[in-house]
TrEMBL record:
SMART domains documented for this protein: AAA (SM00382)
InterPro entries, sorted: AAA+_ATPase, ABC_transporter-like_ATP-bd, ABC_transporter-like_CS, DrrA1/2-like_C, P-loop_NTPase
Top-rank taxon: Bacteria
Record's keyword annotation contains Transcription: no
Name of the protein described by the UniProt record: Antibiotic ABC transporter ATP-binding protein
Keyword entries, A-Z: ATP-binding, Nucleotide-binding, Transport
PANTHER family: LINEARMYCIN RESISTANCE ATP-BINDING PROTEIN LNRL
Pfam families found in the cross-reference section: ABC_tran (PF00005), DrrA1-3_C (PF13732)
Presence of the UniProt keyword Cell division in the record: no
UniProt GO molecular function: ATP binding; ATP hydrolysis activity
ABC transporter domain residues: 2-233
PROSITE patterns linked: ABC_TRANSPORTER_1, ABC_TRANSPORTER_2
């Protein structure tokens, strides 16, 4: 339904998106993950025809959208990372403005405004000014605005950053319902791995402007089939101890956690005895040692060397 072909964007001499190839089938929910600076937002901006690529193409149903983006814009809704609302207008007035911008017919627009307000759970607050809303409520109205023209494709760029748990859960349920009940095709970016695991059928992992892995969650987790993830609870934290563990044989990645360390190591390792020896030297006690079932977060750490929120 929607695909990018060697999509590339450079700013001066810096290539921030490097020949990205990705696709969305109709009715899919697809995650786009990457650490800060990976090029996700620039990729989304090019797909949405907000900025022009340096080279490559974006195709809708096999037709290029670069020269003539109007067909794409008719079927695409975008929820940007930043709140895009008028603070001095009410929720209803904002939606009426954006509905007119989408050229929704007047009679249909009144009905549609009530429908999208109902979807995001703010129908009873529609006459209140946006400036009086919490951050989570503003983000819900942001989503409502993107749904006014009943888009076939919805792109959400980190829609739950910095909001309360109630609004976050409401947004996730809204996205799930749009995808599963209404058949809306979704491209979703987030700094919360659990959101992508809940909502998305397939995942692209992006780093330094390139797609470095793609597949279903199960396919991506199979990358770690020859490795173990080990959680280690320590009596205290020590940078010197962490640096020492990074140098041990068979250790691939080390991440500090609240409890101690999370270690990615090759299968059939002899890590425990080396850990105990290193801990004794630093005056640290190992309180717990557990081999964990690999997660999508572990795959991300393995491929990028960073956690998703870095």
């Amino acid at each position: 339904m929607l695909e990018t072909v060697k999509l590339t964007k450079s700013f001066k001499d810096k290539k921030v998106v490097d020949e990205i190839n990705l696709y969305l089938h109709a009715g899919e929910s697809v995650g786009l993950l990457g650490p800060n600076g990976a090029g996700k937002s620039t990729t989304i901006s090019m797909i949405a025809s907000l900025i022009r690529p340096t080279s490559g193409d974006v195709k809708l149903d096999g037709k290029s959208t670069i020269q003539n983006p109007s067909d794409l814009r008719k079927v695409l809704g975008v929820v940007p990372q930043e709140i895009a609302l008028y603070e001095e207008l009410s929720a209803y007035e904002n939606l009426k403005f954006f509905g007119k911008a989408y050229r929704v017919e007047r009679e249909r627009l009144e009905v549609r405004i009530q429908e999208v307000l109902d979807m995001v759970g703010l129908k009873d607050r529609q006459k209140e000014l946006i400036k009086t809303f919490s951050g989570g409520m503003k983000r819900r109205i942001n989503i409502a605005a993107a749904l006014l023209h009943n888009p076939r494709i919805l792109i959400l760029d980190e829609p739950t950053v910095g909001i309360d748990p109630q609004s976050r859960n409401h947004i996730l349920e809204t996205v799930r319902e749009l995808n599963e009940t209404h058949g809306t095709t979704v491209l979703y970016t987030s700094h919360y791995m659990e959101e992508v695991e809940q909502l998305c059928n397939r995942v692209y992992i992006m780093d330094h402007g390139k797609i470095i892995a793609t597949g279903s969650k199960e396919e991506l987790m199979s990358i770690l089939s020859s490795e173990d993830t080990i959680g280690v609870q320590l009596s205290k934290r020590s940078e010197a101890f962490t640096d020492k563990i990074k140098t041990l044989p068979d250790v691939l990645q080390v991440e500090q956690t609240k409890e101690g360390l999370r270690i990615l190591a090759k299968k059939n390792h002899n890590l425990l005895s080396n850990l105990v020896h290193a801990a004794e030297k630093e005056g640290i006690q190992i309180m717990n040692y557990q081999v964990e079932i690999p997660s999508l977060e572990d795959v991300f750490l393995h491929l990028t060397g960073k956690t998703l929120r870095d």
